[in-house]
Write a structure and sequence with these properties.
The protein is mainly α. The protein has 9 helices and 3 strands.
C-alpha cells in the first residue's frame, strides 16, 4: 500500500483541508453575524417565538408548536412531533438575529406542510445516515487493512450516505432561508432597514452547510482514493 498512502494524515489533510478552512471561516462568520445582530433590537420588538408563531399561524399551521430548547443556536424543526424548537437566545430575544433564525426554522415547517421533496428525501435517509456516519468508516478501515476490498466497499457506500445527506441538505436550508427572507421582507415583522442583518445572519449560517457538504464529499473521495490505490497494489 505504501505508494499511495502518503503518511495517512497528510493525505487526509490534502483532501479535507479546503473544507476545514471553509468550515472554520463559516463558523467565524456565523458567530460574528449573530453576535452583532443579537445586540440590535427590531423596531417591532417581536421575540423569536412571536415571529415563528405569526409565520406559522399566517400559513395555517396553528397545530405546529413553538417551544424553547436548551443549548446555543440549537434551533431546529422536528417534523415527527411537528414542533419548532428555539434556543433561549432566539426564543426570548427580540433581536434581528433572533427574528431571522426563527423565520428560517418556520420555513422548515412550511416545507414540511407542502411536502417539499428535498426535505422528504433528507428525512427518509436519516436512519441510514445515522448508521453510516459512524459504522461506515469502521467497516471501511477493517476492509482496507484486514478483510478485503469487498468489505471496504460496503463501508464506503455506507459512509457515502453522509455525503448524500449533506448535499440534499443544501437546497433544504437555502429554501428555508429564502422563505424566511421573503416573509420577513413583506410581513411587517421587521423593517426594510433591518433586512441587511437578516441576510447577514442567514447567509453566514448557509455557508456552514456548504462547508459540511464539501467536507463529507472530500472524505468519500479520500476513502475512494485509498481503496483504488489498494486495488492497484
Amino acid at each position: 500500500m505504501g505508494g499511495f498512502y502518503f503518511g495517512g494524515y497528510g493525505l487526509y489533510l490534502l483532501f479535507s483541508l479546503p473544507a476545514l478552512i471553509l468550515g472554520f471561516w463559516a463558523q467565524i462568520k456565523v458567530q460574528s453575524a449573530f453576535n452583532k445582530y443579537s445586540r440590535i433590537r427590531t423596531f417591532t420588538g417581536l421575540t423569536g417565538a412571536e415571529v415563528a408563531r405569526r409565520i406559522l399561524d399566517s400559513h395555517g399551521l396553528t397545530s405546529v408548536k413553538v417551544e424553547q430548547t436548551s443549548g446555543f443556536l440549537s434551533d431546529h424543526y422536528d417534523p415527527i412531533s411537528r414542533t419548532l424548537r428555539l434556543s433561549p437566545n432566539v426564543y426570548r430575544s427580540n433581536s434581528i438575529a433572533a427574528a431571522g433564525i426563527a423565520a428560517h426554522e418556520a420555513g422548515h415547517a412550511l416545507q414540511h406542510a407542502e411536502n417539499y421533496f428535498p426535505l422528504q428525501i433528507r428525512s427518509a435517509i436519516v436512519p441510514t445516515v445515522q448508521i453510516g456516519s459512524w459504522l461506515g468508516p469502521i467497516i471501511f478501515m477493517l476492509g482496507l487493512f484486514l478483510l478485503g476490498n469487498t468489505v471496504a466497499w460496503v463501508g464506503l457506500i455506507l459512509f457515502a450516505a453522509t455525503a448524500v445527506f449533506a448535499l440534499i441538505t443544501l437546497p433544504v436550508e437555502f429554501d428555508a432561508s429564502n422563505r424566511a427572507k421573503a416573509i420577513l421582507a413583506t410581513s411587517g415583522m421587521v423593517y426594510n432597514t433591518e433586512m441587511q442583518g437578516i441576510h447577514s445572519v442567514l447567509d453566514a449560517a448557509a455557508l456552514t452547510y456548504v462547508a459540511a457538504a464539501i467536507q463529507a464529499v472530500s472524505t468519500v473521495l479520500y476513502y475512494l482514493f485509498l481503496l483504488s490505490g489498494r486495488q492497484r497494489d
